[in-house]
Design brief:
22 strands; Bactericidal permeability-increasing protein, domain 1; elongated; single chain
């Protein structure tokens, strides 16, 4: 069972927190790369004795990227990158110095970076430019026997001359890899209570903790959840839901609604109150607005996530307390009626628009936790 953890809670409250398992990230990588994608071509100049400069061009296709999450790497991910490509000697008559495509493996340490910027843009990327190269290995050459002495000799020559520069040049050409969204998305995150700045990231053994900071007056706190296994857990602070409700309702109706919504998470249920917007804000004028109270229980049922109303009642101002108690008692009858909303528990996440790759995930668990809600997502591919 998932447990709330204070690990990774640094520098104030979070609007969103994510606990990402190593295997889930690798499944995203496998699904996103698919059959492979072409990277930038790298040209390297060699200085050969008695021959002068010679230019080599290598065009690589990335075929696999896997990650290891280890606390000892100090906030960086240990990435293993496999690529294949042809090596060509440039000149008046281009030559192929190898009998087939070279299959390379590089080990690097790369830092993840997540930030909501002042201009409203949002980035969740891997900084390849400043990655630390650990090693480059020639695993094989197409058309050459695995045990051939020729492969070993060619491999030593290739790696000693252009190995490090090859992947450093490739990294520089690719810059950063990940998700970069424009100000429209950033504005949405601002409205939901996220604050500008760099998100808190902590890499532990087997999983990564990510916390997106909330504004100072945000209700609730999205704490990290431990025990995610091979999945990813996303916790949302309770204060995110009132503006989210306003956005969804306004989007559905096409106009801004003159209502205020309160929201709180309690033991196994979500509760809140909806009231009309106050016309006059003054401390000497009493608040005479009625409120519509509700309680909802989220649950998974087959292929759907259900929100089931357990009570709906109206609170009236300046009436005897027994009247509001009676209203709440009658509102409890909502649990006997089929007041529910269903949404699919599976969704498709686009990963690489140019390749058309995506990943199907499903909600495997939903729980109300202290000051928020946690959703656990699993890959349908690996399930």
């Amino acid at each position: 069972m998932d447990e709330v953890s204070d690990r990774g809670d640094k520098g104030g409250k979070y609007a969103f927190s994510i606990t990402l398992a190593e295997e889930f990230l690798n499944e995203m990588s496998r699904s996103g790369i698919g059959d492979g994608f072409s990277a930038a071509e790298v040209v390297h100049t060699l200085e050969l004795p008695m021959m002068g400069p010679m230019e080599l061009k290598v065009g690589l296709t990335i075929t696999e990227v896997t990650f290891q999450m280890r606390e000892e790497d100090q906030g960086r991910l240990h990435a293993t990158v496999r690529a294949e490509g042809a090596v060509q000697v440039l000149g008046e008559v281009p030559m192929q110095p190898l009998p087939g495509a070279a299959h390379l493996r590089a080990e690097v340490l790369v830092a993840p970076h997540v930030e909501l910027r002042e201009d409203g843009s949002f980035a969740a990327v891997l900084d390849l430019v400043n990655c630390e190269m650990l090693s480059v290995t020639l695993e094989r050459i197409a058309g050459v026997e695995t045990t051939s002495i020729m492969q070993e000799q060619l491999g030593q020559l290739l790696i000693s001359t252009i190995g490090g520069d090859l992947f450093q040049g490739l990294a520089a050409a690719m810059g950063t890899v990940g998700l970069e969204l424009d100000s429209a998305v950033g504005s949405l995150l601002h409205m939901l209570g996220c604050s500008v700045g760099v998100a808190n990231l902590e890499v532990l053994d087997g999983h990564l903790l990510l916390g997106i900071h909330g504004v100072d007056d945000l209700d609730g706190h999205a704490r990290h959840v431990s025990g995610t296994g091979e999945a990813v857990s996303v916790t949302v602070a309770s204060g995110v839901f009132p503006p989210l409700f306003q956005l969804l309702a306004s989007g559905a109706l096409g106009v801004d609604l003159p209502f205020e919504a309160d929201f709180r998470s309690e033991h196994k249920q979500l509760s809140g109150r909806i009231r009309n917007t106050r016309l006059v804000e003054h401390p000497l004028i009493p608040d005479l607005r009625p409120g519509l109270h509700y309680s909802v229980v989220p649950r998974l049922l087959g292929e759907f996530l259900e929100l089931v109303a357990t009570e709906v009642w109206v609170e009236l101002p300046f009436v005897p307390a027994p009247i509001n108690r009676l209203s709440r008692l009658l509102g409890g009858a909502a649990s006997l009626a089929p007041l529910k909303v269903r949404v699919p528990s599976t969704m498709t996440i686009p990963l690489h628009p140019e390749l058309g790759t995506s990943m199907v995930v499903r909600i495997s668990r939903v729980a109300t936790v202290a000051e928020g809600i946690t959703l656990t997502l699993e890959s349908c591919t690996s399930a």
